[in-house]
Predict the 3D structure of the following.
Amino acid sequence: MKRVYNFSAGPAVLPEEVLKEAADEMLDYGGSGMSIMEMSHRTKTFDKVIQDAESDLREIMNIPDNYKVIFVQGGATTQFAAVPLNLMSKNKKAAYIETGNFSKKAYQEAKIFSDNVRIVASSKDKNYTYIPDCSSLAIEPDDDYVYICENNTIFGTKFHTLPNTCGKPLVSDQSSCFLSEPVDVSKYGVIYAGVQKNVGPAGMAIVIIREDLIKDDADLQFPTPTMLRWKTQIDNGSLYNTPNSWSIYVCGKVFKWIKAQGGLVAMKKRNEEKAKILYDYLETSKLYKNGVEKDSRSIMNVVFTTGDADLDAKFVEEAKKCNIVSIKGHRMVGGMRASIYNAMPKEGVMALVEFMKKFEKENLQ
Amino acid sequence: MKRVYNFSAGPAVLPEEVLKEAADEMLDYGGSGMSIMEMSHRTKTFDKVIQDAESDLREIMNIPDNYKVIFVQGGATTQFAAVPLNLMSKNKKAAYIETGNFSKKAYQEAKIFSDNVRIVASSKDKNYTYIPDCSSLAIEPDDDYVYICENNTIFGTKFHTLPNTCGKPLVSDQSSCFLSEPVDVSKYGVIYAGVQKNVGPAGMAIVIIREDLIKDDADLQFPTPTMLRWKTQIDNGSLYNTPNSWSIYVCGKVFKWIKAQGGLVAMKKRNEEKAKILYDYLETSKLYKNGVEKDSRSIMNVVFTTGDADLDAKFVEEAKKCNIVSIKGHRMVGGMRASIYNAMPKEGVMALVEFMKKFEKENLQ
């Protein structure tokens, strides 16, 4: 059995301990005589799995009591629709901040439902290499929410200061930075994340919603599929239908792993250390460039390029031979991208930098 | 490690061979050095997983070329909304046949989007213990489709003759009978199934759609979330966003297992044999009753009761001690339910009948 250093942007590396436990329990979870995949979601055993997952997540993130947590299918992309469907009131107005592909897609999805959504800030002018100044946005009195994608997986940027929403609820897609560092949940109206980047198996999103934003069916402005109604999911404890029980189970293990590592404070320390190794080297390198503005850097997704597409391709190929895989950048950016989520060990980043140095030496003209 | 006979209605028993393979490959799928859960869905390796899954499914079900197959998140319940959203044309009319809880829920979901949906046949009058005669339904010329739930998990009934739809497309929820026997796909407009009963891990549905029913975005009658648009999923090979890759992977293994067992003809033979053991015994028993009309019986979900709630509860408890678990009936019906999907071995059914006989002997007054 071999293991590689997997820099995939998602689905992505998971803690080896978690994988081993899942393998060990595959035929008999906790003495039940069956896999968690074979178990009714209405059993006491599964109920404990989902309850533990929620309470561990609440503990890790320090989620205030006036926020609800749901585990729902469809990934973050389904939430692109759920956000306007659940949050829009009569005037159906919302302000979006465009900092990359996923905030743009979320905006376009909202436009399906209303013409009154606007982009109030954008970093499109410089191909999303920075986070725009959001201290004074054109928020309107009847805006239902302000929307951001907090960490931009493709472009390697992150909000380090939250926008001034003029008191409107902030909705944040945290997919690629979820649980990477402590956040003050009380500053948000809604936080959501597809789990497949930093938490667990694809096919699920976690949504954290401030209670006062939860609408009764009668107050929804659109004919809304039941499965996309947050209140339905909340009222049924995420068990309105059969949930992605495997993902809940693995995510639950990852939450326990995070706690054992020292929680989000420890995660942040580790993640900043890992990112610093890479960024420090990139600053001194004569071959590679990271085009992101320094104060907009992501500590989860680090993008870089040699500036030469052929050389980039050679990098990706040769890296593979050194067990450094899934490092190719997104086609919108090109070059390379090292996604260094929670489960990427420091050794992986050090191995990458060693390889980068060797490759630089061999290929710098 | 113990294994039980798991009669759960879903999530449900999976082939032990499949579970063992999944456990073995947990840290290193096919020499990739990572779990399938950690792998980008844009890799060649995962592409082969999803392509193989689709081609094996097409082979098993003999799906004609003019049908598309998609693997989508959200389970069958999300399709309750996707069906009207994708199939309704200008008049938004559809005919539903009500044979239990899930057809009723599908009907209610369609009512969210249109007042012009009707129940054209129902077995509600006898608590869904039979499939109504559907040879002459009040189908209207502008009905967009006729809807059935083909096997009723809770009530233990199944359509053995498809309704006469007067040429309208038949939409069938096959969740609890999917791949249990051969079907003539060409008789359907749309077949869909939540996979967690007879195929794989929860959190996914498989949808099979006749090409001529696939609408362009411009022809949709409602503001439709992108993730629920069949055409979007088809055009992107089920990879519009990150799919439930774990479920696709396990389902793919189950498809290969079905092929190795001899395909759907062999499945049917085995499933009929298993069901016959149970039904034959129920016919002779003085303690248990199966209230379902004989020609409406399901071969997947066999319901029975002693007629005494306390005795039923005692049955469930004592069965557990004999490693016969998840046999309690749904609260809408009470009593017991033995779900005997493809992966339930004949030995499991024989063990159940042995236990039933013993319990009958001990408890028959």
